[in-house]
Design goal:
The protein is mostly beta strands. Helix content is about 0%, strand content about 50%.
């Protein structure tokens, strides 16, 4: 390993790379909402054209929203001396918030032994895909459990083949399917999903004796008339064995009741006995048996048990089987940011939005602008601009679209003179208008201008956004002087196979038909004034130039041929 002194270990350098450049050229794919952490290695050249590099400074790295970068030489302002080490690296980390395909531009400023401040840019490709990380638990898994409304969540059962399932999706919907259909969550919030699965469907019937009331008793006290209030209690038998016994209500007025919770097995038989206690009473002997009766699982009102009348109630409950799997999870549905409103300020050529605390990404004609993540962006090209706002939850809102017009002050149409002394604008970016001596030449809007008189020519180019760009002046000498009163005309225009050239001057010597590149296609000497017929049968459809020539000047008109 090659040591790099004075640099912190924020990233790992790929020392297997020996050729100057940036590695890798394509970054590993990232996902929205998932942590991202990758390194870029730089191998710096030692010299260029024999002149050594003294320093490289990493100025900026244009990253998608949510990602940041840090060089391994941040303490030295990301400056690198190739004489010390050719290697450096940058760590890219964070949580990307916006899917897309990005060209990550790395801007470097280099100093040579003979010059300083030389800019250079390197690019790597990075693709951010939508989130595909499922949230899982022991019972089920979810895809799309965190997102922006309306949110669709897919559920996968982790325990297939069991006997029964119940789903409570938290949005008011339920299901008993093994694999339920996707669920839509229409409003922001947290939704609790409950899942149960059973591998045993056996139920349990539960009967419970809930109360016993003695309404009346007679003939207690060993058959002698009672002279005091009774002391009643009861005994429950299960298959002739004592199963439960109540406490004694001593010296009480009837009726008297007990609140109970005695479980009864429907497969067993039960008997209830009523007794009167003689405990503590002198001379009365043992407790008095008042009678017995079968205990019904249906309960009884006004039942005779010996000389007593009783009421009792038996409740019924069916206990479902215990789920073999119980799982709970949460669906998180987030809201959207407020859609920004774009303002176009033509004076500083800037589009901007009010900062509402979101993350931002500017777009130009539908494509993201690398590194344009501020609330404002300086416009360098005419077109449509909008901004995407991303809140902390990763939800996206699109602004309105602003048409921004940038008239490039550096653009000057290039005009050249060909061998036939015609003027040609070589790089038109819009509509064309030729001028002579500062006056627009009527209908002279083609890429080629055939000068008709001597003078100063220039062209104006108007782009699709209305920006007007003027070329430099071209001085053209056609003859000794212009004939200002030359009277001539062409017809029909558009022409078919024949063109009539009507000339009323004796000074015209010839007639030429030229293409837009200035090449002569037809040339005819004029033997008379008046109407001259030109045969166009060999010329295809298109736009051409008709030129009449005198001894000192040439004059042109535009011709359309349409057959």
């Amino acid at each position: 390993m090659i040591p790099v002194f004075g640099m912190t270990q924020v990233c790992t350098i790929d020392y297997s790379q020996t050729t100057p450049g940036i590695y890798p050229d394509t970054m590993p794919t990232g996902y929205v909402g998932a942590a991202y952490n990758e390194d870029i290695t730089f191998v710096m050249p030692l010299d260029t054209s024999g002149f050594p590099f003294l320093n490289f400074h990493i100025l900026s790295i244009a990253l998608p929203v949510g990602l940041t970068w840090e060089c391994n030489n941040s303490a030295s302002n990301c400056d690198y001396d190739p004489a010390v080490s050719q290697y450096g690296c940058v760590n890219i980390q964070g949580t990307p918030l916006l899917a897309g395909q990005y060209q990550v531009d790395v801007t470097v400023i280099a100093d040579l032994s003979i010059a300083s401040g030389l800019p250079s840019s390197f690019s790597v490709f990075l693709e951010i895909l939508p989130s595909n990380v499922p949230v899982s638990n022991t019972g089920f898994s979810m895809v799309g459990a965190t997102g922006c409304f309306p949110q669709t969540v897919d559920f996968a059962n982790n325990n297939p083949g069991l006997l029964a399932y119940t789903w409570d999706f938290g949005n008011g919907n339920y299901s008993s399917a093994e694999n339920p259909s996707p669920q839509i969550y229409s409003t922001p919030g947290d939704y609790i999903v409950n899942y149960q699965a059973w591998d045993n469907l056996d139920t349990l019937d539960v009967y419970t004796l809930t109360n016993v009331t003695i309404q009346s008793m007679s003939n207690y006290g060993g058959g002698f008339p009672a002279f005091e209030n009774p002391d009643p209690y009861f005994i429950i038998y299960e298959n002739a064995a004592v199963y439960n016994q109540s406490g004694v209500y001593a010296d009480t007025f009837l009726p008297v009741g007990w609140n109970t919770s005695i479980l009864l097995d429907p497969l067993q038989s039960y008997t209830i006995e009523i007794w009167e206690s003689d405990a503590g009473e002198i001379g009365f002997g043992a407790d008095d048996f008042m009678g017995s009766a079968p205990l019904s699982l249906s309960g009884c009102i006004g039942c005779a048990v010996g000389t007593s009348v009783i009421d009792y109630t038996v409740s019924y409950q069916q206990i479902l089987p215990t789920p073999s799997v119980i799982s709970v999870d949460t669906v998180h549905v987030n809201g959207y940011p407020i859609a920004p409103s774009v303002t176009w300020d033509s004076i500083p050529h800037t589009v901007w939005v009010n900062d509402m605390g979101y993350s931002y990404q500017w777009y130009f004609n539908g494509s993201p602008i690398a590194g344009a993540t501020d609330t404002s962006h300086v416009v360098m090209n005419s077109g449509e601009y909008y901004i995407v706002a991303v809140n902390a939850s990763g939800c996206v809102a699109f602004s309105d679209t602003a048409m921004a017009i940038f008239c490039d002050p550096a653009y000057i149409p290039n005009v050249q003179v060909n061998g036939d002394s015609n003027l040609i604008v070589t790089d038109p970016i819009g509509d064309i208008q030729w001028y002579v001596n500062g006056v627009a030449i009527p209908n002279d809007t083609l890429q080629v201008c055939v000068p008709g008189i001597a003078g100063t020519y220039h062209v104006e180019v108007i782009d699709d956004f209305g920006c007007v760009y003027a070329s430099t002046d071209q001085n053209v000498t056609v003859g000794f002087e212009a004939i200002s009163n030359l009277d001539w005309n062409i017809y029909p225009n558009p022409a078919n196979n024949e063109l009539m050239v009507e000339i009323e001057s004796d000074e015209v010597s010839s007639i030429d038909i030229l293409d837009l590149a200035g090449r002569i296609l037809i040339s005819r000497y004029l033997d008379k004034k008046g109407t001259n017929v030109i045969n166009l049968s060999q010329i295809i459809d298109g736009t051409y130039i008709v030129r009449v020539n005198t001894n000192s000047n040439s004059f042109t008109k535009k011709l359309i041929v349409h057959k």
